[in-house]
Amino acid sequence: MNIDKLLVVSKFAPPRIDARHIFRTQLLDQLREPQHYALALVTGGAGFGKTILLVQRRQELMKAGAEVAWLSLSHDDKHLPNFCAYLFAAFERLGIRIENDMLLEGDSGKSMNSVLAVVADAVARIAKELYLIIDDYHHVEDPWAHKLMQKLLDHCPANLHLIIASRVTPPLGLSRLRVSGQVAEIGFAELPFDVDETRVFFERNLSTMKLSADEVRLIHDLTNGWPASLQLIAVMLKNSPAKRAKLRSFLRKSTDLQAYLAEDVLAYLPPESTAFLETISVCRRFNAELAAFIADNAHAADLIKRAEDENLLIYRVESDDPSPWYRFHPLFGDFLASRLTRRGQPAVEALHRLASRWFAGQELLAEAVHHASLGGDLEFAVDAIEQATPTTWSLGYISPMLHLLEHLPQDTLFAHPRLFFLGCLTYALTARPDQAEQWIEQIRKSDAAKNPAISSQLALVDAAIALQRDDTQRVIDLLKHNAPSDIRFLRYVYWLSALAAAYASVGRYSDARKLLADNPVDAADCDNDMALVAEGTRPLILLIEGNVKEAARLGAPLLARSEAAHGRGSLSANLCAGSLGDAYYELDRLDEARAVLANRTSILRFSSPEVMVHATLCHARLDLLQETPDVALEFLEAHATHFNSIGLDRPLAYMLAEQIRILLIKGDRVRAADLTAYLHQLAALHRNAKGFRAEIPVIAAQAQARLALANCDYGEALDALLAVVQFAEKFGRARLLVMANVLAATALSSLERKEEAAQYLIHALQTGARLGLIRTFLDEGQRVGEMLAHLQNDAGMDSLAAQWLHNLMGRFSPGGPAEQTTSASSYQKKTMPQEVTLTPRELEILGLVSQAMSTKRIALTLNLTPETVKWNVRNILAKLNISSRYDGVTWARQRGLIK
């Protein structure tokens, strides 16, 4: 009987994929690296794209001329006879004939050696690379089947390669293959999409809808890049676009997602495992000891190991603890928690109370308070805080403290001075200075003020409130003579960070740097969240000073450390991101700036005023460049209303000034004049202000200068800019000084005072080159580009400024949002070659470059490798005889080859 006729033919054909699927460039590179590997192993949970990755690898191999056979296994193939029937049929598609009567039954050891001999002999006779791809190998359960695969790996010729995908690591001896470099492995942690891949996925699957960077980042953070959930979201948005506004709640309540998790993730688990996972889902992180305690299960360690081995959407958490910690995938954790509610609210609260006591016993206070609050045991939460030593305080308090403060009666707060004090600190640190100030006054009137442990720290709270009110001069007055607290939480966050930022606000950069240098972070606190906040002050000070190049250099690794240690949504990470995003923007690294700030709404409303200013302005300017002026104006108006409502006049002034700039770009001088008048009223209130508030009159003067330039009143513009220049020079604000010089050069050029204009521009270039300023020039539009073009052969510039000018010239292009005209400038027409033909692929790449895409994102969009993109760009530059890809964009736009 011909057994092949009884087999399901579809198991030998991979699923079809199209352009909607993301080309997994980095993962495919990993599969290609070992040139002569015997095995490529891909392991991961359900819905993580293992099959699609194998299909893409198959396509690559076939294009390269290799012989490839495909085999998809199912639950029916778990026993040896079925497995061998399909395995032998797959080998036959490679030209390796194994007789049907060699099916492994009875004496499997002898049969196995016979099969191996046949396969080895046949493979040796074929002068080609042979690949057998086996998908869903986790269905195989028979030990003899695994032994057969092991023999094939150990003894077959070098031109036979196995590629296996499985939800669990198969019981094969991989150690020898690893030592000899004959195995390529891709695991559960590597399979999820990164943010760029998530973005490209939605660009391909939602052709009629463009998600914003914040929406993409929100989806990515909620899904951790899990491909199956992204597919469900794409289908939902196609069918119900209105649900776009409620992505977070949809994902947690989606019946499709719930069904998928139940049917494809939990379906094969025994009831004990399912019940156990539901129980421990009350914890955001857990280890075996904690799980055993709250689940009352002595086998907790074994159950966790099984879940990890089977890739059940469970991740290890970085920790110094010798006992490994874990967390669930966010959506899987929500799914398990929703199933847990079937047991009733009292049962869920009881589990939280158990978790609270365990965490308290481990002196993990923030989590103890968190679970006590959720368990309704407010008394235990209060006692835990009261009994904790101040040395255990950390930023991890913030979220559980806010939750606790919302539910505790006032009488309870007044009766517990330490809790009350922590509440003041929490409110002060989260942009709620009014509440903090009310409470601190009540503490002063109570007996708690007699407690030296509290009274000695009241100045720090006063300073924190002053910092949130933008009153940096008061911060200096309160803290300059105070010795640093021996409580790390207070020393790092409320003294060191606050005082250093306050010194920078009045131009005392050397004092700020000396303060940080004289009070270094203890080695033991290197990745502590409080210490990272203090370290985050360094790039912020550089940004205030205008040195964006150095701010980005220090800020990038600091943000990476904060995210690795405490998560992307942590306070320390958000504070770092606020500074780094603005630094990236100024450096014209727009994609990176958008990625850093995406889905970080808390930065914009609950940070220090200085961080909020940098983050909101950066966000608005990105909207202007990448969206539309109206989108940017709407964003600025909303935040102007917010800052006005909480009494922050300086951030409000910045929002008004940026609106004025955009309105003038749009040609709306009437509205710009109205806002300028309002800004002058605000400036009059702060005419004699000190610290950060002293910036308000300067912001108004700068806006007045822009309006005067638009009205062709160049003398008035120069008068207004004089105040800006004087302030910038006095307080060392180099970025502001460069902007003032560029605007002054524009006014002088319009007055035909060309030599003076050139001197202002040269001074701006020299400073900009030293500090890394790019967008300060570009954002002033093509008029500035034309003026700079006339300086290209000026002998008055040093070599650094001349090189910086050359760099800037490659970035100016017509048609940007800051343009006042769409005509090409004369210098571009002279330097760009006229008769050059680019290939369709080269034009496609230039089109994506014009959208400010990075090389990696272009590669993902076009299904190319980054090296191929770079090779094409080099060809373009060579053909056009230019040094910048932005020059290429300009050339193509002038000829109507790209939009």
Task: Walk me through the structure.
The protein is mostly helical. Among the domains are: 3-186, 3-Layer(aba) Sandwich (Rossmann fold); 195-253, no CATH class; 628-711, no CATH class; 737-812, no CATH class; 827-894, Winged helix-like DNA-binding domain superfamily/Winged helix DNA-binding domain (Arc Repressor Mutant, subunit A, Orthogonal Bundle). Helix content is 63%, strand content 4%. It has 49 helices and 7 strands. A 5-stranded parallel β-sheet has the order 2-3-4-1-5, with helices on both faces. α29 (537-545) runs parallel beside α31 and α34 (609-626) packs antiparallel against α35. Mean pLDDT is 86; it is low at 814-833.
Features of the shown structure:
single chain, 899 residues, mainly alpha, Rossmann fold, 5-stranded parallel beta sheet, two-stranded antiparallel ribbon, 7 strands, 63% helix, globular
